[in-house]
Amino acid sequence: MNIVDIIAKKRDKLALTRQEIKFFINSLVHHKIEDYHASTLLMAIYLNGMNEDEIVNLTKEMMKSGDVIDLSDIPGVKVDKHSTGGVGDKTSMVLAPLVASFGVKVAKVSGRGLGHTGGTLDKLESIPGMSISLTNAKFKDLVNKHGIAIMGQTQDLDPADKSLYALRDVTATVGSLPLITSSIMSKKLASGSDTILLDVKMGSGAFMKTLDDARTLSKLLVKVGKACGKDTRAVITDMQEPLGLAVGNILEVKEAIDTLNNKGPKDFTELCINCAAIMLTQAKVTDDLNKAKEMAIANLKNGKAFYKFKEWIGAQGGDTYYLDHPDKFKEAKHVYKIKSKLAGHIKEIEALTIGEAAMHLGAGRLNVTDKIDPTAGIVLNKKVGDHVKINDVLCTVYTNKDKVNDILKTIQKAFKITLVKIKQPKVIIDYIK
Predict the structure, then answer these.
(1) Distance (Å, rounded) from C-alpha 127 to C-alpha 373?
(2) Angle at which helices 91-100 and 266-282 pack, to 10 degrees?
(3) Which of 139, 169, 332, 412 falls between 20 and 30 A from 192, CA-CA?
């Protein structure tokens, strides 16, 4: 078996066997093929696709390319959640402790932000002392003792995905459904949980721009997860406007704290409650989704979710003083108010524009090596459907950069105002199981 024959087979639109896929992944990880071999095969996959068996086999071989965390000795159902990325998506910081407050074990491996999408790890690291660099043993110990842990991907977890993603990024093959699916699911499967909930974002601020594309990806992710023996489900959620109000690391931590104290924005709170309910049914806490929603609402109101949040952050080294006193977090040097020039109703808030603006303010990174300013970002004062008058504040901008006039103008343009009354959009568009 050799790589050139495998490339030729996929070039000719033929299905690869599991042994051929295994040969490719092993050769890639052990540096037995050149980058140009792997890049050529990626392009063939991008152009000609893969059938479901191929995608399942690729996912499994990527998963087995490194460490696979074994959580089987931890009692109970272990649950996990993954988002495809969006603007203002701080869901894991609320959802994980909310679900864990019912005694469910939440074990999650998260990523960093790149481009306009924020990363859970960057947000967590804006809490002084918080450590996300855990060994597999420490990760398991935290899940066992506290019922919750979130860590960064180690070098030995799914190394095939690291190699493939680096090549996809420079060969214009990122947007391949088989490659997206295998990348997401191989990491989730290697993390060791029994169930997976996928939050597939759809809209201007998401990778999936249309509902049809989001449904196609969601159904494929769920099929692959189930084929690998995991209870896998997906929600398709709106990313036409930023989620919640805050975009930026410390700003999003503060919003997570508000939400865990039952004072969060309506759309973000609704998403967390609905996702928590699904995860509670996956964990067999109840088989009644409506009852699960009521339970989730109760634990936001009675303080149990916030208490679990503090327990979790403290267990991973974070200073819980800041959770009780969020006004003590470090603040940006400059604060600007973006005011409306028109009266009417908010028709659209371009999520992509807001996300990219926040990145240029310092809240994100364009390159992996860029340093993030945890204080930078944007807080919306208005959402889609809201009525505004002239000079009403649309959003508040935070940055330590001195020359940001062009960025401020761009943010202003992200708000589209109409005289027609606009209905507030649904945050959850579809549920696939």
Answers:
(1) 13
(2) 40
(3) 169
